[in-house]
């Protein structure tokens, strides 16, 4: 096939978006299923082309396909911008991730969103999102990457606020957009800095300049840190992590696709894409590793105590993204991206499972679930597989990704390694806390306990006393993802993935399916994960330990975690609210009204007052005028006498 | 010489105004149709000019479609009009807005005849400013604009309309007086009123009657009031807020651009050295305008006042682009003027529609309207996203060019820091735009707004034009930058 067909990968979903918004929605609004089918057909096409691209890239020399450019804007003596695609191993892997997860989520959405009045709008936005995400992955210059970067942010905004009639959703959407934009500010500044110093937006050229050492020193470091700021916003890393938990107000399939598998991973992808810049700046690389490592454990602590299943998963996502950053910062592209690749499947699966549970019970609160193992066997089975995978249990996919990160961090940043090990324990604990509370014991929900706030508006009345398994259109994608959650890690069992990403690193660690167990390190992490699961079992299933008593024992910690370290209050109330909007900005507004405009009105009033004063002299009495004339004549005479 | 395209474009609206004002027994519908016809033909002609404009690089700095007739020989004044790469986009912008505001005014029923006459006169005067190549003619058009503006605000306005109208007039006249002094100084220095000659040779070997710095700032203050630049901006929120919708659209979309246009055309072109040496101060002022404007916007609770204040911030980018004095930044500034004309025009049009349909303008009392007026919600959101510089809209293309051009500019030392500060403005912009959209459209639908009207067919038509232009320029900015750069090349 000609390489130009690669353009279709991201254009196909765009056609779906156009067809749905301009034809289906206005003219065929009564055909509810149609837009779902169009979206699924388009994304299937993209998936097909992505598989073709992967095979072609695997076969190509240097794992890169040449694709011709298009001119966009040319200003003499300044800017020349081309539009082109980059098709290398990183692109190919990301394309597979995005199209597979997107396709599964769209199929699932047909069931989950069934009957929602915004059905067409939902699929239109989902198509637009998939287009933008695929565009972000294939863009070959920073400007276009930034364009798609902003567009995925827009889609995220639109989909978080999908149920815009709920104030919580509208607030969360706004918060997500503004917080990520704060990171984008750094990204944009980095683009300007790079362009100022190199005169190009082209990613391949920037790579070679960094490798050649032309682009070096503080410029390179600042540019890399600016780019990383963008990644911190998008990937919800500390200190811009606050938006992601709130983003769970969107429909659950949206959370699965955008806020777990793909868009939030775009930050990790961006660092990987620009990795040669980071690799040549020690400080930048260290920043990535430290922020990533810290975020991993920081988010995990909050995940321990959340009672909303989606929020547990959200903190888990932040934490896992931190792992990826840690992997990039200590090990390199292959290690970070491999975890991204595996994480996409099992995390999307966890969210789809949460959505399936919500579909049945009408709630996201794990305290109101329980006993779902028998009622929802498919959801239970797939959810447990995904939980085992994320906990890093051999031989599931999470194990292969996570242990490589642990090894590389041990080699270069021992402190971060110990934090990461602790995170392994927490991850296993919070995931199985969810598993035991949701699927074990007796069903505690139904009736009065359900919180309609958390459930989609249209489900409300349909909640039965007894939850039942979701329809097959929802279960099927979960099964596919569960299979992937088991097998996706096998790609790197002998280091094949690392070679494919091709940065010349050698992998001594991965030595085959069983060979890896010859190392001590995997055993340590497996034992820690096992302990986490055991503790969760002890507290929530066997009740050997009382969760309430433990909570009281560690009350300060519990409060700290469950109030999310007060970051929301710090940012929203104190920083934005008190300091900026009601403080500094209010001061400026006062200054504008009283100072600047006051001066203007002051000049006007002074003029009026002056005229009024002078007007007094115009009395109309001849005697007075005569007196003035006399004084004037006298003054002239005196002047002439003295100065003349 | 052929057909006098520009004269036709400039004077057709005023011809329409005369017919509407003086022809007896015109029905309401007839007046509106006349106004539409007399604004549509200039629009069509300006699109025709756009298509026939010589876009080759050889045409850089060449005045096209020029017409020159001796006017007052005694003082060497000519009726000289023409367009180059800088003015043509603004002419197109104004003919578009001129036509669109007639559609926007379709529901006006108070003193219809006068209203449309003033509106059409306003269009002629602004078009005249963009096309004039003779300083006296330029000044004449500049002054004419004040009269229709005064009546439009004080008769058809809302709130403290008389106060706002007189404030606008006095403020603008203050600037005009400065500008007239500047123009006279130029005239007495060189004996010429031709903007083409002045642009080519600057002051040349002439000895200026007053210091060139003084002439530069006399002109600059006149333009800075119009743009507006902090701290000369306080007429703007009042005038925008109290003007009727269509006038706000012309004011924000067309009138403000006269300031930026004048700065490039006169200040930067004729006094490159002065511009160069004062650029650091003016760039700093631009950054203050951007951030200060955005910060104060964040505090507004009146729908129209919020949009009005956002203009101050967005025009700050224009000032930044102009005085960064690089090819790219000036191109960006010119594109930003065009883009802002459509984006803010759309925002004011949508704000007007919301206010008209629900009779409420306080953001704290609005809410949940997305269900009740879905089309307006979508279009208003597109306008808002364009204003916050979302890629694929013209707002992004323009702001990005300003940022790239300014950051890479070699003329002002330390401009990188100023540029970064200005970029910070995009975060605050996102804040107030999204807050505004949330206040109007999101949340539970309010019962009191059940049954409010959504956009009708005519309103959808003009929305479509606005959005189409914004997206077209956003996706393929070269359509304009290829023209603008021809006007900018000789400036730098």
List the helices and strands and how they pair.
The complex is a heterodimer of chains A (644) and B (492).
Chain A: H1 6-27, H2 34-59, E1 64-65, E2 70-75, E3 79-83, E4 87-88, H3 89-112, H4 119-138, H5 142-160, H6 167-198, H7 203-212, H8 217-234, H9 243-246, H10 252-261, H11 266-273, H12 275-279, H13 282-303, H14 309-330, H15 333-361, H16 372-375, H17 377-391, H18 397-412, H19 414-439, H20 472-487, H21 496-501, H22 520-541, H23 547-553, H24 555-562, H25 567-615, H26 622-643
Antiparallel strand pairs in A: 1-4, 2-3
Chain B: H1 5-22, H2 28-52, E1 64-72, E2 77-83, H3 87-104, H4 112-131, H5 135-144, H6 146-156, H7 161-190, H8 195-201, H9 212-226, H10 235-242, H11 245-270, H12 272-297, H13 303-323, H14 327-358, H15 369-372, H16 374-387, H17 394-407, H18 415-441, H19 457-475, H20 478-488
Antiparallel strand pairs in B: 1-2
Helix pairs in contact in B: 1-2, 1-4, 2-3, 2-4, 3-4, 3-11, 3-14, 4-5, 4-6, 4-11, 5-7, 6-7, 7-9, 7-10, 8-11, 9-11, 10-11, 10-13, 11-12, 11-13, 11-14, 12-13, 12-18, 13-14, 13-17, 13-18, 14-16, 14-17, 14-19, 14-20, 16-18, 16-19, 17-19
Which short descriptors sum up this protein?
heterodimer, A: 644 residues, mainly alpha, two-stranded antiparallel ribbon, two-stranded antiparallel sheet, 26 helices, 4 strands, 72% helix, 2% strand, globular, B: 492 residues, 20 helices
């Amino acid at each position: 096939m000609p390489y130009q067909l690669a353009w279709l990968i991201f254009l196909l979903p765009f056609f779906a978006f156009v067809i749905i918004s301009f034809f289906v929605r206005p003219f065929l609004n009564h055909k509810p299923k149609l837009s779902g089918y169009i979206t699924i057909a388009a994304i299937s096409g993209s998936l097909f082309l992505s598989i073709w691209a992967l095979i072609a890239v695997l076969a190509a020399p240097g794992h890169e396909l040449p694709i011709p450019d298009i001119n966009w804007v040319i200003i003499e003596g300044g800017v020349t911008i081309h539009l082109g695609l980059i098709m290398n191993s990183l692109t190919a892997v990301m394309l597979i991730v995005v199209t597979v997860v997107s396709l599964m989520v769209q199929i699932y959405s047909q069931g989950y969103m069934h009957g929602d009045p915004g059905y067409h709008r939902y699929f239109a936005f989902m198509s637009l999102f998939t287009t933008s995400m695929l565009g972000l992955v294939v863009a070959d210059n920073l400007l276009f990457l930034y364009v798609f970067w902003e567009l995925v942010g827009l889609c995220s905004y639109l989909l978080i606020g999908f149920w815009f009639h709920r104030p919580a959703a509208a607030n969360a959407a706004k918060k997500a957009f503004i917080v990520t934009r704060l990171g984008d500010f750094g990204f944009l500044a980095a683009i300007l800095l790079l362009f100022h110093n190199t005169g190009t937006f082209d990613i391949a050229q920037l790579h070679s300049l960094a490798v050649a050492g032309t682009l070096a020193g503080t410029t390179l470091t600042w540019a890399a840190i600016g780019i990383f700021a963008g990644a911190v916003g998008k990937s919800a890393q500390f200190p811009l992590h606050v938006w992601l938990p709130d983003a769970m107000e969107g429909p659950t399939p949206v959370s699965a696709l955008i806020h777990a598998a793909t868009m939030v991973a775009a930050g990790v992808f961006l660092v990987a894409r620009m990795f040669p810049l980071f690799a040549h700046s020690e400080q930048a690389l260290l920043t990535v590793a430290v922020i990533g490592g810290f975020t991993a454990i920081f988010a995990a602590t909050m995940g321990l105590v959340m009672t909303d299943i989606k929020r547990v998963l959200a903190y888990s996502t932040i934490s896992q993204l931190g792992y990826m950053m840690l992997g990039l910062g200590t090990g390199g592209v292959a290690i970070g991206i491999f975890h991204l690749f595996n994480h996409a499947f099992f995390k999307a699966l966890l969210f789809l499972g949460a959505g399936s549970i919500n579909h049945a019970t009408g709630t996201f609160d794990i305290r109101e679930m329980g006993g779902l193992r028998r009622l929802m066997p498919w959801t239970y089975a797939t959810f447990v597989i995904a939980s085992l995978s994320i906990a890093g249990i051999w031989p599931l996919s999470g194990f292969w990704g996570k242990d490589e990160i642990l090894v590389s961090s041990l080699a270069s940043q021992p402190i971060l390694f110990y934090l990461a090990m602790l995170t392994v324990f927490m991850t296993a604990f919070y995931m199985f806390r969810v598993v035991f509370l949701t699927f074990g014991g007796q069903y505690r929900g139904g009736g009065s306990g359900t919180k309609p706030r958390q459930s989609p508006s249209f489900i409300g009345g349909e909640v039965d006393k007894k939850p039942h398994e979701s329809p097959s259109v929802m279960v099927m994608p979960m099964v596919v993802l569960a299979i992937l959650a088991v097998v996706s890690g096998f790609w790197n069992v002998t280091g094949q993935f690392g070679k494919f990403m091709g940065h010349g690193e050698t992998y001594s660690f991965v030595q085959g399916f069983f060979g890896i167990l010859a190392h001590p390190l995997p055993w340590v992490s497996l034992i820690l994960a096992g302990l986490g699961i055991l503790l969760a079992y002890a507290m929530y299933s066997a009740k050997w330990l009382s969760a309430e008593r433990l909570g009281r024992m560690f009350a300060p910690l519990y409060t700290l975690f469950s109030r999310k370290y007060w970051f929301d209050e710090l940012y929203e109330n104190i920083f934005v609210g008190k300091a900026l909007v009601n403080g500094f900005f209010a001061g400026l507004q006062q200054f504008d009204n009283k100072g600047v405009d006051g001066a203007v009105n002051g000049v006007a009033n002074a003029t009026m007052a002056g005229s009024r004063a002078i007007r007094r002299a115009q009395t109309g009495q001849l005697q007075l005028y005569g007196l003035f004339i006399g004084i004037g004549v006298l003054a002239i005479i005196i002047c002439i006498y003295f100065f003349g | 010489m052929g057909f006098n395209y520009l004269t036709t474009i400039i004077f057709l609206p005023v011809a329409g105004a005369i017919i509407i004002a003086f022809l007896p027994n015109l029905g309401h519908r007839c007046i509106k149709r006349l106004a539409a016809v007399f604004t549509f033909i200039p629009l069509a002609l300006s699109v025709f000019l756009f298509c026939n404009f010589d876009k080759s690089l050889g045409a850089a700095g060449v005045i096209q479609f020029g017409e020159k007739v001796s006017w007052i020989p005694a003082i060497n004044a000519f009726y000289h009009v023409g367009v180059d790469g800088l003015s043509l986009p603004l002419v197109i912008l104004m003919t578009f807005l001129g036509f669109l505001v007639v559609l926007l005014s379709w529901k006006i029923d108070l003193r219809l005849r006068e209203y449309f006459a003033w509106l059409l006169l306003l269009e002629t005067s602004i078009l005249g400013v963009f096309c004039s190549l003779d300083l006296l003619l330029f000044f004449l058009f500049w002054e004419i604009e004040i009269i229709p503006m005064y009546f439009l605000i004080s008769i058809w306005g809302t709130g403290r309309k008389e106060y706002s109208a007189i404030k606008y007039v006095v403020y603008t006249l203050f600037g005009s007086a400065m500008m007239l002094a500047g123009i006279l100084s130029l005239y007495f220095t060189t004996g010429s009123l031709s903007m083409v000659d002045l642009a080519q040779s600057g002051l040349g070997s002439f000895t200026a009657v007053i210091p060139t710095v003084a002439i530069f700032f006399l002109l600059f203050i006149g333009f800075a009031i119009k743009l507006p630049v902090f701290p000369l901006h306080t007429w703007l929120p009042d005038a925008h807020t109290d003007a009727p919708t269509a006038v706000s659209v012309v004011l924000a979309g067309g009138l403000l651009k006269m300031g930026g246009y004048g700065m490039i055309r006169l200040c930067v072109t004729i006094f490159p050295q002065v511009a160069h040496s004062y650029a650091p101060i003016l760039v700093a002022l631009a950054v203050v305008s951007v951030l200060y404007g955005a910060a104060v916007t964040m505090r507004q609770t009146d729908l129209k006042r919020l949009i009005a204040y956002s203009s101050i911030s967005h025009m700050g980018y224009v000032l930044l682009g102009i005085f960064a004095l690089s090819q790219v930044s000036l191109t960006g500034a010119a594109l930003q003027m065009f883009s802002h004309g459509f984006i803010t025009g759309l925002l004011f049009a949508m704000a007007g529609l919301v206010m008209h349909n629900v009779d409420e303008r306080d953001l704290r009392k609005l809410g949940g309207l997305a269900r009740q007026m879905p089309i307006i919600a979508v279009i208003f959101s597109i306008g808002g996203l364009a204003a916050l510089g979302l890629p694929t809209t013209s707002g992004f293309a323009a702001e990005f060019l300003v940022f790239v051009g300014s950051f890479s500019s070699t003329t002002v030392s330390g401009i990188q820091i100023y540029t970064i500060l200005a970029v910070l403005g995009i975060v605050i912009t996102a804040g107030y735009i999204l807050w505004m959209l949330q206040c109007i459209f999101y949340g539970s639908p309010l019962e009191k707004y059940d049954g409010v009207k959504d956009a009708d067919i005519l309103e959808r038509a003009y929305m479509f034009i606005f959005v189409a232009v914004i997206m077209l320029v956003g996706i393929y900015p070269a359509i304009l930058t290829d023209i603008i750069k021809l006007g900018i090349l000789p400036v730098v």
